[in-house]
Specification:
It comes from Marinicrinis sediminis. With 303 residues, the chain is α+β, with helices and mostly antiparallel strands. The chain has helices spanning 2-27, 30-69, 77-106, 112-128, 130-144, 213-230, 264-281; strands at residues 153-156, 159-166, 170-174, 180-184, 192-193, 199-207, 239-246, 251-259. Among the domains are: 31-109; 145-193, Roll (SH3 type barrels), CATH 2.30.30.60; 199-281, 2-Layer Sandwich (Alpha-Beta Plaits).
Length: 303
């Protein structure tokens, strides 16, 4: 029995010495320490690079939003801040995720199962919420490409009105009669924006053939200039083109007036009213349909 105990103790002592030797060899290996130092340096570089990229990306987003605010219509400040923070968070999460993958690869982790799982999860979410993803992506492009802004008058499909709100998923358009249309951004494929460039007001004034054309044109010019001086929506002096057409009973004189975006209808209404007053004051007849009735009375012959 004593011999067996002594043999076991000797074997355990030898095993302990072997483990200690392995540990000593492990920690005393210069190449291993160099590899560990290289991995640590790479992890630090990846971490610092990720922070720098995030900071530069957020600064670029801020500059883009400031540039959008200098355009024809300023976006709502709360909306700009919300979108800026949202995009900044998305970029931060994406870059941090990439940095974590790079750090794990430096630590010799197998990334294939993780990437495969993320790919399957992304496909499941994509197939389950295709319309939602499409609406969100389209909303981003609408905002950053400045296709239209809050307060613009636009037409998309059969809907036309003033933009009340631009969301990441839906856009609210208020019709001129008061209805609010909620349109998913993904269904906005074509947009006509009436609020970017100046509009042209076209006014056709009809006078009778008996009226002297030159006199009528002078009266129309003077009246158009008077409207221009009193209407802030007109950005340039109106242009009287002259005789536009010769109708069956009238001579049509055309006037063009450049106006602020989507104010040409109001300008045309005011112009028509002032033209009617001026022509009446000068005794210039505006032709209109007349119906003349002849009564014929037959004489009865007496026998």
């Amino acid at each position: 029995m004593y011999w067996f105990a002594t043999a076991a103790e000797t074997e355990n002592k030898a095993n302990n010495e072997s483990i200690q030797d392995q540990l000593m060899n492990y920690f005393q290996d210069p190449s291993r320490w160099m590899n560990m130092l290289g991995v640590i340096v790479k992890i630090v570089v990846i971490f610092i690079a990720a922070k720098i990229v995030i900071k530069i990306s957020k600064r670029m987003i801020q500059l883009m939003l400031e540039d959008r605010e200098k355009k024809h219509f300023k976006l709502d400040a709360r909306r700009s801040n919300t979108i800026g923070k949202l995009v900044g968070n998305v970029i931060t999460y994406t870059i941090n995720f990439i940095a974590i993958l790079l750090i794990l690869s430096q630590l010799n982790f197998d990334l294939m199962p993780l990437l495969a799982g993320a790919g399957v999860l992304g496909l499941a979410i994509g197939f389950g919420a295709q319309n939602l993803v499409r609406d969100v992506i389209t909303g981003f492009f609408i905002i950053f490409e400045d296709q239209f802004a809050v307060g613009d008058i636009i037409q998309t499909g059969q809907f036309k009105g003033t933009v009340e709100e631009i969301g990441l998923r839906i856009t609210k358009i208020k019709n001129w009669t008061g209805e609010i249309h909620y349109i998913p951004n993904g269904s906005i494929t074509e947009v006509t924006n009436f609020s970017i460039n100046n509009s042209i007001s076209v006014v056709d004034v009809s006078v009778a053939y008996e009226v002297d054309v030159d006199t009528a044109i002078e009266v129309i010019k003077a009246t158009a200039m008077q409207v221009y001086e009193n209407n802030d929506n007109m950005v340039k002096e109106p242009d009287v083109l002259g005789v536009q057409s010769l109708g069956a009973s009238d001579v049509v004189i055309r006037v063009l007036a450049e106006c602020k975006p989507y104010t040409h209808f109001a300008v045309a209404r005011q112009m028509n009213a002032e033209m009617k007053k001026a022509l009446d004051a000068k005794g210039i007849e505006i032709p209109y349909p007349r119906l003349v009735t002849y009564h014929r009375q037959e004489e009865t012959e007496t026998a």
